[in-house]
Amino acid sequence: MNRLFAYLFFLLLLFPFSLPAQNSDSTIIRSIYTYALEQGKGYDWLRELTTNIGPRLSGSAGAEKAVQWAKAAMEQEKNGTVYLQEVMVPHWIRNDKEELAVISKGKKTPLRICSLGGSIPTPVNGLRTKVIEVKSFEELAQLGTEKVKGKIVFFNVPMNQRHISTMTAYGEAGKYRWAGAMNAAKYGAIGSITRSLTLALDDNPHTGAMGYNDTITKIPACAISTIGAESLSKILKENPEAEVVLFMNCETLTDKKSYNVIAEIKGTEFPEEIIVVGGHLDAWDTGQGAHDDGSGCVQSMEVLRIFRDLAIKPKRTVRVVLFMNEENGLKGAKKYAQASKESGENHIAAIESDAGGFTPHGFSSESIDSTKLTKLLNWKPLFQPYGLYDWDKDGGGADIGQLKDEGTLLIGLRPDTQRYFDYHHTEIDTFDKINKRELHLGAAAMASLIYLLAEYGVK
Question: Of 351, 276, 318, whose CA–CA distance to 454 is shortest?
Answer without folding.
Answer: 318
